[in-house]
Every structure is written in C-alpha cells, then in structure tokens.
Write a structure and sequence with these properties.
Chain B: It comes from Actinomycetospora succinea. The complex is a heterodimer of chains A (about 575) and B (about 475). Chain A contains 22 helices and 20 strands. By secondary structure, chain A is an alpha/beta fold. The longest helix of chain B has about 40 residues. The chains are: A alpha/beta (about 575), B mainly alpha (about 475).
C-alpha cells in the first residue's frame, strides 16, 4: 500500500471493513428491475455504474459486485414467495449492447482475500438457488443473452435452464478469466460447462483460454448455448421459450403471494436479535451463540388458509428468513468470530406440530413447499460456512425434525445428559427427536441427507434410525445412537465445553476451514460439491498466489496497460 | 451414572486440602478410581505380607501435618490429596505469558500438552512401585524394609496427586487417562509404562538405592520444572510432592553411603579390594552400578535439543529449574545456548537457540546435583583410609537417547571403536556375574536391629526411634 508523505494521520489507520447489509426490496434496487407479464417474469440486469457497494471502482459494462448480487438474491426470493403466478423467468440485460461483463475486476483487485471469498461464496449460493428454483419451485429460468456474456455474466446464464444468445455477428459468450486475469471462472463456470452442459473437455479447455469466446453458431455447436437467434427473431423466440419453460410448472394459478416485509432486527455491538433467532457475540472468546427459538405448541395453524394468512409471520418462514440473514451477516461482517454455537430453545411439542403441518402440505402446497426448500438452502449455507459449528443441546431445547438438522449440520454435537443441577427453574432433561424430515426433506449439496453423510457407508444405521423416528432420545441414548458427539453430564458439561472452545480457538483458522469442509462433505461429488469444493478451493488458492494478486499479478495489472509478470513454476 | 459401590467417606479415607467433601466432580471420579487403585495396590504393590508398617502419612500441608508417623496396615494407608499453600498473587514467571496471573483452570489451548505432561509424570509414580514389588522379601533390615514401603506408599500418593489433577481439571478425557495409569504396568508386554527406564525390574537392593539416588532424582528435577508451571494446581501439587521426594533421595544417598562404608570396612578387615568372598560388594562393582543407573537416568531428560521443551516453556507450562532465581529475561527468544553434539567423530557442542536447549539445561543441573553424592561417598572412603575413588562417568557414556546415542564413548569421555567397547564393557557396566553376586547377597534380615552382611547399619532410626525399633510387624 502506498502511503503519501503528506497524508493525514487518520488515513493511515487500517481501512475499516464495510459492514454489509443484506436488506433490500425492489423499490431500492439500483441494478435490477423486473416485470411480471402473465406467467413470466422478465428480469433485467441494468447496473448503475456509480452504484458500487464500496468506493474505488465503477461498475462498467453491467459488471457486478456484491451489492448487485444482494439485489439478485432478494429478487429471487421475491419471485418465489411474492409471485406464485410466475412459472418462468427470463434473465436478460437492460443495456443495449452487452449482457454482462462479469464480476468487476477493479473490485476484485482491490478487495481483501476474505472479501473475495465471501463474495464468491454468496454469488455461488445465489446461482445454485436459481437452479433450485427451476428444479423445485416451478420457476424455470431462461437466459436471454442480448449481448456478450463474459465471465461471471456467462456463469449467470449457466445457472439458467436454457441459454439463448443473439446472433448479431458480434455478441459472444466467453470465460476470459484464465487468459485475461490469471484466475478461474469461479462462480461455477468451469464446472457447469462440463458437468451441466456436457461440453467436451478439450473444447472446454479451448473455450476457457480463449478470451474472446465464441459467437452464436459456434457456441451452439459446442453446446455452450442452446440456441442462437437473429435480432429480428429475438423477441418472439425469447417469448416462445419463456412460454415453453412455463409449461408443466407445479405453480398454482390462483394463489396469492406472501409479501416479505423488512426483517425486524436489533443490532448492538455484541448481539443481533430477531424475534425468532438470537445471536450473542463473545469477541474475546471469538464465539457466536446462535439460539433459534422454536414455535409455541398452541400456535400451529390449523389450515393452509391460515398459513397463507400468516405469510411471513408463519414461524418456519419467519425463523428461516432471520437465520438466513444472520448467517450472511456473521459470515461477511464477523470474520474473527470463528466458532458458532448453535442452540435451540422452545417446546419439542411445538416443533413436532409444525413438522406435521409441513409434512402434510409440502408435497401439495406451493408455499409450504417453498418454505421447505428455503430452509434446505439455509441449511446448505451452514454446510459451506467456514466457521466451526458446534451444537449445544441442553434442557429447554427443541432439536426435533427440521430443527435437528441444525445440529446435524454442525461439526460436533454436545448434549447434556440429565439436567443442570443448580438451575433456577425446574427442567426436563434435553431430548432430540428424529422425524421423517431427517430422511430426505433437506438434502445436502452432495445429494445425501445429513444422516447419510454422518453415517456414510453405514446404511444399516440410517435404516435403524429411521425405525426410531419420533422417539424421544436423551443424551445417553442419542450418544449411543451416534447422533451426538458426547453427552457429558452436569458435572462435566461446563469444563468440557470451555476446554473444547478454548482449544478450538487456538487452532489455525485456515486449517480448520479446510478440515471442516472436508469432513462435512463425504461421499459422492455433485456439481454443487464440485463448485464449492474443487472449483472454490482452487480459486481461493489462486487468489492468494502472487501470479493473481501480487503487485505484478494478472488481477492487479489488468487494465494498467502492463503485462503480468508470472512466476513460471508450475506448482 | 450409578454405581453399586458403597459411598466413600471422603474426608475420613482421603486426607486432603482440596475440599473433597463438597466437590461432586472429584467425588464422582474418585468413587470409581479409588477401588481400582486399591485393586492395583493389592495386585502390583509390595508383595511381602505385613501386619503393619511404621509409616509417615501426610494429613495436612502445614509443618505438623505433612509428616505424621504411626504403625499402619499397608492397605489402610490413607493416600491423601495435597496441594501446597495457595498464593493468590502468583504470576507466570516465564514464556510468552510472563507476568500474567497464573491459571486456575486448564487453558483449552494447552489442554493436550498439560495433560500429556501430567500423564507422563503420573505414569512414573506407580511404575516404580511395580518395579520394586518383590524387593521387600530380601530387605537387609526392618529399617530398610520400612523405607522401601515408605517410598512405595509415597509414590502411590504421587500417583494420586497426578490423578487428582486429571480428575479435577481434564473432564472425561482426564478420567480416562487416570484409568490408563492403572492399566499400564511396568515391564508388561501388552501395555508397558511410557518411559523405558520404568519397565526395568529393580532386582536387588543395590539397584534400589541407585534407583532412588539417580532415577528418583530425575523425578525431582522434572517436578521442579513443573512446580514453575503457569497452571497453578500443577505447580502447587508438584511443590508438595517435592517435599516427599526428598525422603526418597535420602534413602538412596544413605543407602549407598552404607554400602560404601561396609565395603570399606571389609576392605580394611581383609586388606584387599576383593571383598566379594567376604559377603561384600566390591568397589568396582559399585562403580559399575553407578555407571549404569546414572546413564539411564540421563536418558530420561530427552534429546539435548527439544522443540517440545521449547514449546512447553514458551507456553508457560514447564519452566527451568529454579526459574525465578535465574537472572535473565525468562523469555529466552533472543538467547542462545550450547548443546552436546558429536561431529566428525569428535565430542563437541553446537549452538542453538536457548529455547531449544532447555533439556540440556535441566540435565546439567541434575548432573551437578548427582556429583554431590560422589563427594560424600568418597569422603567415606577417605575416612576409611582407602585411596580408590568413585566417580560419575562422562555424559556421553552408555547413552541411548540424544546426541550420544549409538556412539561408543568410554567413561572418561573418549570416542572409542566398537572393539574397544566390547573388550571393556564388562569393566564398565554390571555383568551377569556381578548381578548374580549382588543378587546372591540378598537375604532378608527380619530381626529388629540386625543388618545384612553387605551393608552398614544406619546411623539413626526413623523419627527419632532407635535403629532396632520394630519398624515392621508381620502377621
């Protein structure tokens, strides 16, 4: 960093990490707009050049930064919940001549490593979410590339079910990261070209090293896009493909959407509090204690109408929105809080009552189905969170069914056997309950349930546990069943947890991140795990190498008129 | 967890100054461990059947309490848990936490290291009891038999002290390690004691005195470094153990005194160095035993250059001998030290960061301390008008651990070829003939005041009792 001699003292203070807020709504969007036309939502990327989230770069050529993606994420959530009538989504550009140039290079070049990593993780999650909409929400995405889609722009298109590229003898699709920037198309690009679009690997190699990419006909031939369409035919073809995409959607025709009002949230220096989720930060110990408050037994809605009427106040949706927001905030804004302690508080009966409602309707009702998939995606966010996750299962907790998934997502689970002897109030010993939810409702990125991942290669145990659905298990029983790591009693609890946390806090954060990610995703690779594992890990390695981010690296030299000076050794 | 075993009346059975009667955690742990300990003592403790023994029991840490004498049936000995007095102002004296208040709980960051240090120390305590299990049967006097048993019960108490720390501060993992301390056994093929020297049987009383002089002295130095620990309960435990350890040294020092004195008497009586035929132990044989026990004890200090020792020091877990009396910065990151080395066939030294040289530092302190005994024994020889002298062999002689391992070095410190070693080994280390001779002298003498032929009587009894006091009663 260059420090000017006459710079004021304050300028030498370390640059404050911007606190990122994920709240937005269509009225506030600066980079997106969407129009609903019958069954189809038309989504326009129209980035405001001066609308960067942090100073220092201009978002030229419809390039994006985290702020653009935060709006995209919000947009996807609103389409799901607020627009049940939407059955297909057309993603296109609001600019005349290009679709999207990808992630903004100057933004990447000036960002810290954690910022880049968090940015990529969030954008990946949103791309996966778009695929999840096509697969599970009856909202199929069509990319209408009305101009060149390069890098992250093409990666955004790759998340769609169908890709149309205008055939105007100049627009192209391209992944120029390797030749121009010395990094990877890390938002799923490399992976989806081969794994989703089945492009041959030698062609994929050419494509990913050819900075100008391919125009329509060749792109179709190589399966990089599905169709290329002349300008003349463009509008009608896109419209037709959107209509085709809407066919067969499971979305209802007569439903009313559920609006997503701003979250109620109170933030102090050491706590983030929502109505259904609380988080306390211990900055000395570098822990966050996340407590999910379960539903009350008497509050379960008796009918679907009532669920729709409750809308965003329906406990599973309300809780999931808050948890989602909390995860994003902690991940982005609290880098040094290395361990998250996951707790629940509430009545097991209440949790089970909601389980029954969800189980009864998630196959048939669009909203209940949406909520289930939302909770699924939120759990997946936990799975790929680079923090140590530890579930503390204590008296008064309600780890049952879907909420038990929170514990199973953790790296370890500690459950109190018996009660706290010196508690002020009378306690029931902690219990956990498996329900049908734990056997398929919330698959991980590797396609397995968390139980299948936990007992990988041991299907008998999973089958046996399936037979124990609805059984109340105490600490000792849960430990015996392999569902918790340890079940210390009152005498041992405090020491065991304290020592565990202190010990954890002393280990290398990087090694922990790598170790946890390896342990969490056992078994089969899927496109998703390849993106979060292989692609991301390589990308993050490349990001810290001087060839990319050194002062003479490709990322830093891009746009300076000077060529990158590579260390030639292959490692 | 429920246990069918009867509740233990803690304060009556287990003298302590750790408020055992109101500590649920300790009680629960000890309820299970104490019966296992008694089983172990029955199986692996002294094999001689006695009615009671005149033993010292610690019932408190104060001046009056720590040395309480009475005839006690061995299996009713009250093993207590004692820590030296608490100093509320104590600060960590060294390493990167220097100046911070000492820890009253195990810092999670150092759990594994502290647990390891305590387990290794704890493992040696019952090991020596096991090694000395059959010695009582050949005691040269009731006085000596009593001293043996005193050492044994105190080693047992030192095991208790380490188990207390594991139980009180290390949770479930600590309880499991405490169980393992009873499950490993000296010399066992399946689950031996951790350190090699503690898997050798102590076959005769000369070996016992040597062991208590040289090997227990290693224990003294290890305890001395743990006494400096920033983990206050460990520090206080070790400080109290050191008091008892002093008696073990005393048994070794005076035991060898008396062997040397008897040998000198026999040499004068017979006007010959050859006293074996007269029921004595020749001086050169004593020297060979010194050579052996001294050198295996040197091995216990580990490699000259040790990153573990450096880490322990920096973390504030294990200091140097008399850390607080040393005149340096107690951090040592900028200092250098010399450690022994063998280079190009020559014994030399090499400079390393001071932090890496801490094992050698401790070994040097130990070697200096060991030489005091030699002065003492040589004064006895001098008093008897005998010119021959005993000595400590060179630090590189007969070493299996560290820079000298695998080298052939004479007791004078000369690098020698293998052939020269083979030709002289029998002159330097106990041979089978020597061991057979010493073992052949081992006959029990059970009559009060009488003494075996190969050793002189003690000059004083225990606790102002006469030498011919009935220290041990038999069934």
């Amino acid at each position: 960093m260059t420090v000017l001699d006459d710079a004021p003292a304050a300028a030498q203070a370390p640059e404050a990490v911007p606190q990122v807020d994920f709240d937005t709504d269509p009225a506030q969007y600066r980079h997106w707009r969407f129009e609903i036309d019958g069954e189809t939502a038309w989504v326009y990327l129209d980035v405001a050049e001066d609308g960067g989230l942090v100073p220092g770069y201009e978002l030229k050529l419809n390039s994006y930064d985290l702020g653009v993606d935060i709006e995209l994420y919000d947009l996807t959530q609103r389409l799901r919940f607020e627009h049940p009538e939407v059955r297909s989504v057309v993603l296109t550009s609001g600019k005349d001549s290009n679709f999207c140039a990808g992630a903004n290079i100057r933004m990447l070049a000036q960002s810290s490593h954690p910022w880049k990593v968090n940015f990529c993780k969030f954008t990946n999650e949103t791309r996966n979410g778009i695929e999840d909409m096509t697969a599970n929400s009856g909202q199929t995405w069509v990319a209408a590339l009305n101009g060149t889609a390069a890098g992250g722009g093409y990666e955004m298109a790759l998340a769609c079910e169908t890709i149309l590229l205008v055939n105007d003898r100049s627009s192209a699709v391209a992944l120029p990261e390797v030749p121009l920037l010395g990094v990877l198309p890390g938002t799923g690009g490399l992976t989806r070209v081969t794994d989703k679009r089945h492009v041959r690997k030698d062609r994929a190699d050419i494509f990913a090293t050819k900075s100008e990419g391919f125009q329509g006909p060749k792109a179709v031939e190589w399966k990089l896009v599905d169709e290329t369409v002349s300008r003349k035919q463009w509008d009608s073809t896109v419209r037709a493909r959107a209509a085709e995409a809407a066919e067969g959607s499971s979305r209802p025709t007569d439903a009313t959407g559920v609006s997503l009002p701003p979250l109620r949230r109170e933030i102090t220096d050491d706590a983030i509090t929502y109505p259904h989720v609380r988080c306390e930060l211990d900055r000395d110990a570098r822990t966050a204690t996340i407590t999910v408050l379960g539903p009350e037994p008497g509050t379960v809605p008796e009918s679907l109408d009532r669920i729709c009427a409750l809308g965003a106040d329906f406990w599973p949706l309300a809780m999931t929105r808050e948890l989602d927001d909390l995860i994003l905030r902690l991940r982005t804004n609290e880098l040094e809080i290395g361990t998250w302690l996951v707790r629940t508080q509430g009545s097991i009966e209440g949790a089970l009552a909601f389980e029954r409602v969800i189980a009864e309707h998630s196959g048939s009702d669009w909203l209940v189905n949406e909520i289930r998939h939302y909770f699924k995606r939120t759990l997946k966010r936990l799975d790929v969170t680079s923090r140590t996750l530890i579930a503390l299962i204590e008296p008064g907790s309600c780890f049952a069914g879907a909420l038990l998934e929170l514990a199973l997502a953790c790296d370890r689970q500690y459950m109190l056997e018996g009660i706290f002897e010196d508690a002020d109030e009378e306690q029931e010993p902690a219990q956990i309950v498996l329900t049908a939810s734990n056997f398929g409702a919330f698959p991980m990125g590797n396609g397995l349930t968390r139980l299948q991942s936990r007992f990988y290669g041991d299907d008998d145990t999973v089958t046996e546990l399936h037979g124990r659905t609805d059984e109340r298990m105490t600490g000792a029983q849960a430990e015996e069943a392999g569902l918790v790591t340890d079940a210390p009693d009152d005498i041992d609890w405090e020491d065991e947890i304290r020592i565990l946390l202190e010990e954890r806090a002393s280990l290398s954060p990087d090694a922990l991140t790598g170790m946890e990610a390896n342990h969490r995703f056992v078994g089969p690779e899927t496109m998703e795990t390849r993106i979060f594992g292989r692609l991301t890990a390589w990308q993050n390695w490349i990001f810290i190498r001087p060839n990319a981010s050194g002062s003479e690296g490709a990322l830093r030299r891009y746009g300076t008129g000077r060529k990158a000076d590579f260390d030639k050794q292959r490692v | 967890m429920t246990s069918a075993r009867p509740k233990i009346d803690f304060d009556a059975k287990i003298p302590n100054n750790v408020d055992l009667a109101s500590d649920r955690k300790l009680q629960r742990a000890l309820e299970r461990w104490q019966p296992n300990f008694l089983d172990w003592w029955g199986d692996m403790g002294p094999a001689v059947d006695t009615k009671d023994v005149y033993l010292r029991t610690a019932v408190d840490v104060g001046r009056d309490g720590w040395a309480h004498f009475d005839h006690v049936p061995m299996n009713e000995y009250r093993w207590g848990v004692f820590l030296s007095e608490h100093d509320p102002d104590r600060k960590i004296a060294f390493g990167e936490h220097k100046g911070e208040p000492v820890w009253q709980e195990v810092p999670g960051e150092y759990r594994a290291d502290l647990q390891r240090l305590i387990v290794i120390q704890g493992d040696t305590e019952p090991a020596s009891v096991e090694q000395q299990r059959f010695l009582g049967a050949t005691a040269p006097s009731l006085y000596d038999m009593r001293n043996l048993f005193q050492v044994n019960v105190e080693e047992g108490r030192h095991l208790w002290a380490m188990v207390y720390l594991l139980h009180a501060y290390f949770g479930r993992a600590g309880r499991e390690e405490a169980d393992q301390l009873l499950a490993r056994n000296s010399g066992s093929d399946d689950s031996p004691r951790i350190l090699g020297a503690f898997n050798e049987e102590t076959p005769d009383w000369l070996s016992f005195y040597m062991f208590t002089y040289f090997t227990d002295r290693d224990g003294k130095y290890q305890l001395g470094t743990l006494k400096e620990s920033g983990f206050d309960p460990l520090s206080r435990t070790c400080e109290f153990m050191l008091k008892e350890e002093a008696h073990h040294m005393f048994v070794g020092t005076t035991g060898i005194d008396r062997v040397v004195a008897r040998t000198a008497e026999l040499m004068n009586e017979h006007d010959s160095e050859e006293v074996a035929g007269a029921g004595g132990i020749p001086l050169d044989m004593i020297q060979k035993y010194i050579n052996f026990h001294y050198t295996v004890s040197l091995d216990l200090f580990g490699n000259e250059s040790s990153t573990n020792a450096a880490n322990y020091f920096t973390a504030g877990l294990k200091g140097r001998w008399q850390e607080e009396r040393r005149k340096d910065d107690h951090v040592l990151t900028d200092d250098a030290g010399a450690v022994d080395a063998v280079r190009d066939g020559k014994i030399t030294s090499t400079e390393v960061p001071a932090l890496l040289a801490l094992n050698q530092d401790l070994r040097s302190e130990y070697m200096g301390d060991c030489s005091n005994g030699l002065k003492r024994w040589n004064r006895i020889l001098e008093k008897h008008g005998i010119d021959a002298r005993l000595y400590l062999p060179h630090v590189g002689f007969n070493r299996q651990v560290g820079a000298f391992a695998g080298q052939r070095i004479s007791p004078e410190g000369k690098m020698i070829p293998e052939a020269e070693w083979t030709a002289n080994e029998g002159d330097w280390l106990p041979t089978d003939v020597d061991k057979t001779h010493v073992r052949g002298l081992m006959h029990p003498v059970l009559e009060p005041g009488k003494i075996a032929s190969w050793i002189a009587p003690p000059s004083n009894g225990i606790n102002d009792k006469p030498v011919d006091f009935e220290y041990v009663h038999f069934n």
